[in-house]
Design goal:
heterodimer; A: 519 residues; alpha+beta; Transferase(Phosphotransferase), domain 1; 3-stranded antiparallel β-sheet; 35% helix; B: 257 residues; Cyclin A, domain 1; 15 helices; serine/threonine-protein kinase (chain A); transferase (chain A)
């Protein structure tokens, strides 16, 4: 490549690879910096990801490679377009179409009112993109609102294919450590290694619910808690509902809870919306509706018709004036049921956590800084008024917990080890009881169902700390987890040479026949 | 992308037979003939194969690596892109793309072990990583490749001649010593291998082929190419081409600076 300008750190009018006029940095992600740029050939604004080369000599970042590989094949109006890729000064650069915002920003912008038609439009675009992926035998595996990008014309597109992969061949094991926890399907939480497009549909269902509720639907604080939240919403699955459940690797029996009427969870949703939701949240992945079937559901043909993308409400962008022109009264107009303080507190949540960094990965995902600062201030003043011992947010599931991202997988893997290793059976029981009781003390109405409330009298803040120390105490006795056949995202983030060599040695080698990967 | 080869980038990148054995200008200047160009590709394909056996990766990874290797030389010269480095770099890239990563340092280690004193084949990790980036560009970032293995199994099952699997599978492996994968759709290659296998093993598949409604001329052409290849080269499956045959050609190529 011809090297045009000097140091490419400074945003300005530097040319990258003689073609792109560099503008401001939009964010820093797990594997590089994203900046805005103008393509001088076409005059179009683009977002360029500069892929950092790994410091552990692993060459081109694995996640980036996945994105390149799959996005070169997936060309669809509802999937982010990879326009170009080029090496420049030893770094790989990926050029994407520029996206203004993302669905998470829409959901949490309290100035936005989402009509049922708007929600329908978003869900339809999401399912169209997803159905296209599945037709091409690609699993997205990281569906969540901030990976659903929104363009200047209001079109929604699936982004971030860093975890996606080709599926469809039997007997290939995949890692179950995919998706941010709140969007993880029950089969993944039970540790399945063979799964299909149904996992994306479950996550899509969670996003649908989140659009209706204007807050994340199932906010588990651990994998076990996540399952608890799912079962509390839809009832503990019976084996008649999901015959394969008991054979899953991490299956644990949960106390039976019956499902509350779905209507009670989504008071504002239409009957058709509820019917579609219930089909997307079907426990048995084999019986769960597919993305394509969902698109054919009567929800999309009944009134109101989905809003045209260009007419969808969008969050205020940086530079837009009149930030607070819209009165708060508007909140009562739509299906927003949250009161402002809680809403604000949720926005503030991830502070200096990994998820924050992860979120900043994509330019398009960064909320307008002005707006964010504004809410942050509000927030801190709000939270200081809330007494420390009783966390109202937790009780209502609107706790300002950091949105879990994949990085939380490391911890949960340790936990899984605890859960599964027979030597730690006791510990597992202890942890389970503890987690259960933790939940109990938080969710009052479940208390009656769990008899083991030994610890519930302890103050709530005490629990997580104790749990954390238990884990850290055990950490040094626990052998490292067995290498997974497939290296996930995180494995490469924390490149462990030992484990990788081991993985390599264990890699299958078949002289004759092998179940080949999908063609 | 199991279902749709036709909508894939692989299908759009298919070449005509005349396009694949074109010796790049820079190589021609060094006196490399079409035949020698072909020999280098055969030699390096088995180099990739042997290296892959050392580091133990799935067969699919090898097939993808060789496809990359052959694609590169439809666009780049061997003078500029040293095949001795491109080969392990293709294996490295393919292992990542097919989700069974092999570390670059292991490749370096096994190359040393395999090639012994011949330091023309020796490279450092940094060489492989640099070449990886250049490869991505040379491949125009198209990384998904389809192979005949999967259609082969389906077709054999459909024809009810699964007892030929082992033999036909071996034939498919050998097709990677040619440029067929750049020219024909994978299932046609699979069909050609089934055709050869059934003729050699005296299985009557005529009526089955008739029902398939594929262009039998293409299947027969591919089969002839495969048989011609066996006749012409007689490549030793373990050692590849003989030294006397390949060394003079390799010596025409520049060695690393």
């Amino acid at each position: 490549m011809s090297n045009g300008g000097g140091g490419d750190e400074d945003a300005g009018t530097k040319r990258v690879a003689d073609r792109y006029l560099k503008r401001e940095v939009l964010g820093e992600g797990t594997y590089g910096v994203v900046f805005k740029a103008i393509d001088t050939k076409t005059g179009v604004t683009v977002a360029i990801k500069r892929i950092r080369l790994g410091k552990y000599k692993e060459g081109v970042n694995f996640t980036a490679l996945r994105e390149i590989k799959l996005l070169k094949e997936l060309k669809d109006p509802n999937i982010i377009e990879l326009i170009d890729a080029f090496p420049y000064k030893g770094n790989l650069h990926l050029v994407f179409e520029f996206m203004e915002t993302d669905l998470e920003a829409v959901i949490r912008d309290r100035n936005i009112v989402l009509s049922p038609a708007d929600i329908k439009s978003y869900i339809q675009m999401m399912l169209k993109g997803l159905s296209f992926c599945h037709k091409k035998w690609v699993l997205h595996r990281d569906m969540k609102p901030n990976n659903l990008l929104i363009g200047a014309e209001g079109q929604l597109k699936l982004g971030d294919f860093g975890l996606a992969r080709i599926f469809g061949s039997p007997e290939r094991n995949f890692t179950h450590q995919v998706f941010a926890r709140w969007y993880r399907a029950p089969e993944l939480l039970f540790g399945t290694k063979q799964y299909g497009s149904a996992v994306d549909v479950w996550a899509a269902g969670c996003i649908f619910a989140e659009l209706l509720l204007r807050r994340p639907f199932l906010q588990g604080s651990s994998d076990i808690d996540q399952l608890g939240k799912i079962f509390a919403a839809f009832g503990t699955p019976k084996s008649s509902q999901w015959p394969d459940m008991v054979y899953l690797p991490d299956y644990v029996e949960y106390q039976f809870v019956s499902a509350p009427p779905l209507r009670s969870l989504f008071p504002m949703a239409s009957d058709d919306a509820l019917d579609l939701l219930s089909k997307m949240f079907t426990y048995d992945p084999k019986a769960r509706i597919t993305a394509q079937q969902a698109l054919e559901h009567r929800y999309f043909s009944s009134v109101p018709a989905p809003t045209k993308p260009a007419l969808l409400p969008r969050p205020k962008l940086k530079g837009d004036s009149g930030n607070d022109k819209i009165p708060d009264l508007n909140l009562q107009g739509g299906p927003v049921v949250l009161s402002p303080p809680r809403k604000l507190r949720r926005v503030s949540a991830p502070d200096g956590t990994e998820s924050n960094i992860h979120r900043a990965e994509k330019a398009e995902e960064i909320p307008p800084t002005g707006l964010r600062r504004h809410t942050d201030e509000n927030m801190s003043s709000q939270s200081s008024r809330i007494p420390m011992s009783v966390d109202v947010g937790v009780v209502f599931g609107t706790r300002p917990a950091p949105r879990p991202t994949l990085n939380s997988a490391d911890k949960s893997r340790l936990k899984r080890k605890l859960d599964m290793d027979p030597d730690f059976g006791l510990v597992r029981h202890f942890v389970l009881v503890w987690t259960m009781s933790f939940e109990c003390c938080l969710l009052g109405h479940y208390a009656a169902r769990h008899p083991t409330l030994i610890l519930s009298s302890l103050p709530a803040y005490y629990m997580p700390r104790r749990l954390a120390t238990t884990y850290s105490m055990l950490a040094h006795v626990i052998p490292p987890p067995p290498p997974e056949e497939e290296l996930s995202h995180d494995d490469f983030g924390e490149f462990d040479e030992e484990v990788n060599e081991e993985t390599m040695r264990n890699a299958e080698w078949s002289e004759g026949l092998e179940p080949a990967n999908p063609e | 992308m199991a279902a749709n080869f036709w909508a894939s980038s692989h299908s759009k990148q298919q070449l005509d037979p005349e396009e694949v054995d074109v010796v790049p200008a820079a190589d021609r200047e060094r006196g490399i003939t079409t035949e020698e160009f072909r020999l280098v590709k055969i030699h390096m394909s088995s180099h990739i194969w042997r290296l892959a056996q050392q580091v133990k990766v799935r067969q699919r990874v090898i097939a993808t690596a060789i496809t990359y290797f052959r694609r590169v030389y439809t666009r780049k010269s061997m003078t500029e892109y040293d095949p001795r480095l491109v080969a392990p770099a293709c294996l490295y890239l393919a292992s990542k793309v097919e989700e069974s990563t092999v570390q670059a340092r292991l490749l370096v280690f096994y190359i040393k072990k395999m090639c012994g004193p011949d330091d023309k084949y020796r490279f450092e990790i940094k060489d492989i990583l640099e070449m990886e980036m250049k490869l991505l560009e040379a491949l125009d970032y198209y990384l998904v490749v389809y192979h005949p293995y999967r259609p082969l199994l389906h077709l054999l099952q459909n024809a009810g001649i699964t007892d030929l699997t082992q033999f036909a599978w071996g034939l498919v492996n050998d097709t990677y010593k040619m440029d067929l994968i750049l020219i024909y759709p994978p299932y046609m290659i699979a069909l050609a291998c089934i055709y050869i296998a059934s003729v050699l093993k005296d299985k009557d598949t005529t009526s089955w082929f008739e029902e398939l409604r594929v262009d039998m001329n293409i299947v027969k052409n591919i089969s002839m190419e495969i048989l011609d290849f066996y006749e012409t080269y007689k490549v030793d499956p373990q050692r590849g081409l003989s030294d006397e045959k390949i060394s003079p050609v390799m010596n025409k190529l520049p060695t690393k600076a």
